[in-house]
Amino acid sequence: MKHPKILVIYKRSSLSVAGKLSEQLRYNERFQANHKAHYLTLRHVESILNTHKIKYHKHTRSRGLNYKPYSLVITVGGDGTLLEAARGLTSKQILLGVNSDPKWSIGQFCSCHQGTFEQVLLKTLKEPSVFRLTKLKLDLFSNKEKYSVECLNDILICHANPAAMTRYQLKIGTVTEFHRNSGIWFSTAAGSTGAMLSAGGVRMKPSSTDIQYKPRELYQVQSVSYQLTGGFIPKMKKAQIVSSMARGCIFVDGSHVKLPFSYGSRAEVSSSKNFIQLVHEPKF
């Protein structure tokens, strides 16, 4: 990579964002250890970049960031920090994840940790070795307005109240069904080992470009035989969901992106034309 424009994205530790709870958490050894390890890693990342006279910009993770000017994005934290950055990236950019505290974060998307960062960085700058991961695209049509967002992991559509029934119409291909359940998951291959797997889905090959879907706890009616109980949506195809809820919600990559999904709102879920160029093959 010649003269890459680099952005370093880092999370704030749980201890630093705890607010009023920080006084109690400061005495919790686990939170203390994570706080110390995380910021030691961040300082190490900056030290290596400065040692090699590599220019970069640094910013805390935020939904409002403009990623377009950067060719290489380095995340310091865990999978959550990397997933947030991935939502804003295109196929032309490279993503390198640094697990700031392997004892705290799973970091299955992270390419390195403090001890291996310098080696991975220098190799990436010289000759990038990247793995392509499919992204999801959500198009939401509500009140004559359209909102679109992309993500690397998964999407959950459900009622705002976790104890309430989720109601929607689902169309995939030529089949349309009305569902009542506790929500429906959509995931990429990257997201298939998390909530999707726990909900009864299957683990996908990292290279797969399909989308997996799985209704949760589908309400069984004796007179109804469902066809859309889970499976795969091939690339270039999409799922269409129409809300039958007053207080429906769509969650993208966990709880950080929450969108209202009320009566008559329509969502379309498909594979994005963009993919993520992740340094090294992920560990799943």
The major β-sheet equals:
11 strands, mixed
Query: For this structure, what is the CATH class of the largest domain?
Result: Mainly Beta
Number of discrete helical segments: 5
- Return the CATH architecture of the largest domain: Sandwich
| CATH topology (fold) name of the largest domain | Tumour Suppressor Smad4
Radius of gyration, in angstroms, nearest whole number: 20 Å
Give the helix proportion (percent range).
10-25%
> Poorly predicted ranges (pLDDT <50, ≥5 residues)?
none
Average of per-residue pLDDT values: 92
Order of helices and strands: EHHEEHEEHEEEEEEHEEEEEE
How would you name the CATH homologous superfamily of the largest domain? Probable inorganic polyphosphate/atp-NAD kinase, domain 2
As a percent range, the share of strand residues is 35-45%
For the secondary structure, the number of strands is 17
**Number of spatially distinct domains:** 2
Describe the structure in your own words.
The protein has helices spanning 22-25, 29-51, 79-87, 117-126, 195-198, and strands spanning 6-10, 57-60, 72-77, 94-99, 112-113, 130-142, 145-151, 154-159, 166-172, 175-181, 184-187, 211-215, 231-233, 238-243, 248-252, 257-260, 266-279. The protein has 284 residues and is α/β, with parallel strands linked by helices. A hairpin with a 2-residue loop joins strand 9 (166-172) and strand 10 (175-181). The radius of gyration is 20 Å and the shape is elongated.
List the helices and strands and how they pair.
Layout (H helix, E strand, L loop, with lengths): L5 E5 L11 H4 L3 H23 L5 E4 L11 E6 L1 H9 L6 E6 L12 E2 L3 H10 L3 E13 L2 E7 L2 E6 L6 E7 L2 E7 L2 E4 L7 H4 L12 E5 L15 E3 L4 E6 L4 E5 L4 E4 L5 E14 L5
Parallel strand pairs: 1-2, 1-3, 3-4, 4-5, 4-17
Antiparallel strand pairs: 6-7, 6-17, 8-11, 8-15, 9-10, 9-14, 11-12, 12-13, 14-17, 15-16
